[in-house]
Automatic annotation (TrEMBL):
PANTHER family: UDP-ARABINOSE 4-EPIMERASE 1, UDP-GLUCOSE 4-EPIMERASE. The gene is galE. It comes from Cereibacter changlensis JA139. This is UDP-glucose 4-epimerase. GO terms for molecular function: UDP-glucose 4-epimerase activity. Residues 5-253 form the NAD-dependent epimerase/dehydratase domain.
Length: 328
């Protein structure tokens, strides 16, 4: 029988794409999700185990039923701006939920754990291209909570031989090129889907958060990675663990950043439509520039991103945005 993998947040944007790639690789992805921000319509590649990371019994029940060989942990609150206004909820849900999950994993005798971390653990780094050895100095509660979970994994790894791979990435974009799943948040806060909705007339305009940053065009710079490339990296990380190759931390980026204005311009080109834009104030917690290399993931995991160019990501996201939102 095929090995099961427990995918927390498996009904969400990145988790559902990971489930698709896991299934293609011969695993059975079990989507563990409370459906607070995920969509049952996105659970297409294996069973849904509806539960909540704040409810330890529901995690134990999923382990007992499916006996997964590994966990992929995506479920989290992940909005930088909200985390600055409501840090308590971010610390409580992300850290306590992850602690429950990690303890349940160890108690069930499962020893393989892939964790979805973030370049937001780095904070502002003054223009350097981030790598795994860059010191982590988060400037928002979201990044701080994710760094705490990384430390938790190091401690549990040492105490219980919990093998773990940590991926740090930031701006995930695009959608399944087959059009089965894609990005949909309610409310939506991310740059590319918001912009596409503005282009479609579903919202009045995109507000650019800050035009006075110390960057060539005054707007923030981010490194965008295609969600399918990211999902592939997670499966490579899983195989690395199952082959007994040990723990690892990997940054996943393209090494090239794009400003908000550059993303807007590329969206105009891809969609061949004007982008309604208004200029606004900075958003609290935003780093000026976050760009990451991925040399270690390429070297040690054999990661080969194929879709992480801005035109491809926007084309895939545009197809999804027009055709297949789960709910109107
Ligand atoms: N951004 C923006 N307007 C929006 C949403 C985002 O100008 O309505 C900017 C944001 O300040 C950041 C970049 O776009 O510089 C990416 O933001 P997003 O929320 O997509 O991802 P994050 O970098 O916060 O993970």
């Amino acid at each position: 029988m095929a090995d099961h993998v427990l995918v927390t947040g498996g009904a969400g944007y990145i988790g559902s794409h990971a489930c698709k790639v896991l299934k293609a690789a011969g695993f059975v992805p079990v989507a563990f999700d409370n459906l607070s921000t995920g969509w049952s319509e996105a659970v297409r590649y294996g069973p849904l185990a509806q539960g909540d990371l704040m409810d330890r019994a529901s995690i134990d029940a999923a382990f007992a039923q499916y006996k997964p060989v590994a966990v992929m942990h995506f479920a989290a609150l992940s909005l930088v701006g909200v985390s600055m206004k409501d840090p308590g909820t971010y610390w409580r849900v992300n850290v306590n939920g992850s602690l429950n999950l990690i303890e349940a994993t160890v108690a069930a005798g499962c020893r393989n754990f892939v964790f979805s971390s973030t370049c937001a653990t780095y904070g502002d780094q003054d223009g350097v291209i981030l790598d795994e050895d860059t010191p982590q100095r988060p400037i928002n509660a979201y990044g701080a909570s994710k760094r705490a979970i990384e430390e938790m994994l190091a401690n549990f790894g040492a105490a219980y031989d919990l093998n773990h791979v940590i991926f740090r990435y930031f701006n995930v974009a695009g959608a399944d090129p087959d059009g089965e799943i894609g990005e949909q948040h309610e409310p939506e806060t991310h740059l590319i889907p918001l912009m596409l909705e503005a282009i479609e007339g579903k919202r009045p305009a995109l507000t650019v958060f800050g035009t006075d940053y110390d960057t060539p065009d005054g707007t923030c710079i981010r490194d965008y990675v295609h969600v399918m490339d990211l999902a592939e990296a997670h499966v490579l990380g899983l195989k690395h663990l199952l082959a007994g190759k040990g723990n690892g931390v990997y940054c996943l980026g393209t090494g090239k950043g794009f400003s908000v204005r550059e993303v807007i311009e590329q969206s105009r080109v891809v969609t061949n439509r004007e982008v309604p834009v208004v200029m606004g104030d900075r958003r609290a917690g935003d780093a000026v520039a976050l760009v990451s290399g991925s040399a270690r993931a390429v070297r040690e995991l054999g990661w080969q991103p194929t879709r992480s160019t801005l035109p491809t990501m926007i084309t895939d996201a545009w197809r999804w945005s027009q055709a297949h939102p789960f709910k109107e």
